[in-house]
Automatic annotation (TrEMBL):
Organism the protein comes from: Paracraurococcus ruber
UniProt cross-references to Pfam families, sorted A to Z: DUF6884
Xref: InterPro entries: DUF6884 (IPR049251)
Record domain DUF6884: where: 6-137
Protein name per the record: DUF6884 domain-containing protein
Length: 142
């Protein structure tokens, strides 16, 4: 066990019916990020704009909410929710948390993540969506 947890952000492209969270999000980016998380870490969760920290097996109905359009106060409240959920599901401190999520999803999670892990990695930080897809494709290939 490597002691790595991956956090993958939700995406707008979803099924039109309830499904386990791992299957609800259907964009090419999410599918590659999911595969990366499943093959590289011990555990992974989804950062859902609607539900906070979600286990991949949890069945969710489709929703239409994104952090990209939330006011700053709502994003802070979301990060507080995610931190509380992390306390419930993650060990007190794990070696590494890898975040596969954009800036809005990481915006208020820096300190909470640092409290839960010895190291926080954001391997695609600063990359646009096209370069993120390329990074994921390359990482999955080799």
């Amino acid at each position: 066990m490597s002691g790595t947890c991956h956090l993958v952000s939700c995406v707008g492209m979803k099924l039109h019916r309830a499904a386990p969270a791992r299957d609800l999000y259907v964009s090419p980016w999410f599918r590659m990020a999911r595969r990366y998380a499943e093959t590289r870490g011990d555990i992974w969760f989804i950062l859902s704009a609607e539900h906070g920290l979600v286990h991949p097996d949890k069945v969710l109905d489709p929703y239409d909410r994104t952090l990209l359009t939330m006011p700053v106060g709502a994003r802070r409240a979301w990060a507080t929710l995610v931190e509380a959920q992390m306390r419930d599901v993650l060990p007190a401190c794990i070696p590494v948390i890898v975040v596969l999520a954009g800036a809005r999803y990481r915006e208020f999670l820096g300190e909470p993540l640092s409290r839960h892990a010895d190291r926080v990695e954001v391997p695609m930080q600063g990359l646009g969506i096209g370069k993120q897809l390329g990074w994921l494709k390359h990482a999955l290939a080799g």
